[in-house]
């Protein structure tokens, strides 16, 4: 096995045992990027000189005193929304040309403090508003998208171009790409991870979180990046727990709610089949399963979009409409329409949100966690605006990718996507695990329990085959 193939926990163990150095790991990952990113297109920028200096420093520190934690010496990428002092934060837009960050984002600070080797920025939509990530292909098949807007993050992790990437999630932008690319992604509780220094999309619904290979890897990253930030008014004061503390307790004793409405409605049959198989595996592992009705689920989409659009329009103001602004035509038109949303509609949507949160808290008085599909349909074909279901029905890509993710963004509750198999076209499927506020340790516990009884998280796309036949879906490379 080459170093670039190691998941975070494996790489950390090898570094701690002095079997692998941070310099060797970084060079292996950079060589991997050079070999495959020309086809995948995940990266906006490589910071090779900076990363090599950081890897050498980490290596010296580890030789002298041992690793300060599992991220020490491990290569990490950031979605192109996170500030890194002295470098351009592009946010996928020409409108940001000439912008240079004057300070690190909170997450950048914490990753650096943990000893992570920051080596690249990965693609997003223009200002994160979208669901396909233009310019980036799905490593499982180049004919399909990786999801968005953290598609660069998920594609990089899936293609083994680094074990960890930090994404953001306002309407499914971590969990959707994680599901489409066969990796694990966590949208934490709103305010659990500071978004200071992250270019916003919609302030009251923006979340920062990790994409990695496994739930265990995600937990290790959360230990480094979560916690209060006095400089971020949206960040919760609650102290961060040890996110790995409950990982090994298994599924036994947990009561899982399976939605009898909304989440399985209008779902691709292969996606539904894989998710129900995952639920059966968790039941076999000792979890209790009961049907529940997610309250007010049908009302969430319109209210969520109203809030997202209005807040995005407020952030950008009149800048997109100035001559030579650099904004793309599509985003300019979207923001122009969003500026017409009446204040009364925005306030009504926020009032509805308060009631939805209250009722969803009540739901978690009946069950510990909710389990459902992460995305209603597998990844769309690149360049297509609609998803076609086997019965001939079509749906806009944005809606198909996001509608099952909106409830957790709207409520701010934590939600994890873990890989749970493949469609007949050999496209990945994601299982979504939602919990009540600040229940990430239990959400990650269930994700880890599932990954102990299945091997989906250990499978990788055969990139050699993926580059043949004009991007036809490759055979799945078995773990080992």
TrEMBL record:
It holds the Pfam family Amidase. InterPro entries: Amidase (IPR000120), Amidase_CS (IPR020556), Amidase_dom (IPR023631), AS_sf (IPR036928). One of its GO terms (molecular function) is transferase activity. Residues 24-444 form the Amidase domain. PANTHER family: AMIDASE AMID-RELATED (PTHR11895:SF176), TRANSAMIDASE (PTHR11895). This is Asp-tRNA(Asn)/Glu-tRNA(Gln) amidotransferase GatCAB subunit A.
């Amino acid at each position: 096995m080459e170093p670039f193939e190691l998941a975070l926990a494996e790489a950390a163990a090898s570094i701690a045992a002095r079997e692998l150095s941070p310099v060797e790991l970084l060079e292996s990952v950079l060589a991997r990027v050079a070999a495959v990113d020309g086809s995948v297109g995940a990266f906006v920028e490589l910071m090779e000189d900076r990363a090599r200096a950081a890897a050498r420093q980490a290596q010296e520190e580890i030789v002298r005193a041992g690793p300060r934690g599992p991220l020490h010496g491990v290569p990490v990428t950031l979605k192109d929304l996170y500030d890194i002092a002295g470098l351009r934060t592009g946010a996928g837009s020409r409108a940001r040309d000439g912008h240079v960050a004057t300070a690190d984002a909170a997450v950048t600070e914490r990753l650096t403090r943990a000893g992570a080797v920051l080596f690249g920025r990965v693609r997003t939509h223009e200002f994160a508003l979208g669901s396909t990530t233009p310019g980036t292909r799905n490593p499982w098949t180049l004919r399909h998208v990786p999801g968005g807007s953290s598609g660069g993050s998920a594609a990089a992790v899936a293609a083994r171009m680094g074990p960890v990437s930090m994404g953001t999630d306002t309407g499914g932008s971590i969990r959707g790409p994680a599901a489409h690319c066969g990796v694990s992604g966590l949208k934490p509780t709103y305010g659990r991870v500071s978004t200071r220094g992250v270019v916003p999309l919609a302030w009251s619904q923006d979340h920062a979180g990790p994409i990695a290979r496994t739930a265990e890897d995600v937990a290790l990253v959360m230990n480094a990046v979560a916690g209060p930030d006095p400089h971020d008014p949206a960040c919760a004061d609650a102290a961060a727990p040890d996110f790995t503390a409950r990982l090994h307790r298994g599924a036994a004793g947990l009561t899982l709610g399976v939605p009898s409405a909304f989440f399985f409605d209008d779902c691709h049959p292969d996606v539904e089949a894989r998710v129900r198989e995952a639920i059966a595996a968790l039941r076999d592992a000792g979890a209790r399963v009961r049907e529940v009705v997610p309250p007010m689920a049908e009302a969430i989409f319109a209210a969520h979009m109203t809030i997202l659009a209005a807040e995005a329009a407020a952030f950008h103001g009149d800048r997109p409409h100035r001559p030579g602004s650099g904004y793309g035509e599509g985003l300019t038109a979207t923001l122009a329409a969003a500026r017409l949303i009446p204040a009364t509609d925005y306030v009504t949507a926020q009032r509805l949100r308060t009631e939805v949160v209250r009722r969803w808290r009540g739901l978690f008085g009946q069950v510990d966690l909710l389990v459902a599909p992460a995305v209603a349909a597998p990844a769309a074909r690149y360049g297509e605006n609609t998803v076609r279901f086997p019965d001939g029905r079509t749906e806009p890509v944005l809606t198909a990718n996001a509608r099952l993710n909106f409830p957790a963004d709207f409520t701010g509750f934590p939600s994890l996507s873990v890989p749970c198999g493949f469609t007949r076209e050999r496209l990945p499927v994601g299982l979504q695990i939602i919990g009540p506020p600040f229940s990430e340790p239990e959400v990650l516990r269930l994700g880890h329990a599932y990954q102990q009884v299945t091997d989906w998280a250990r499978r990788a796309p055969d990139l050699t085959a993926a580059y043949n036949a004009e991007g036809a879906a490759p055979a799945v490379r078995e773990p080992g």
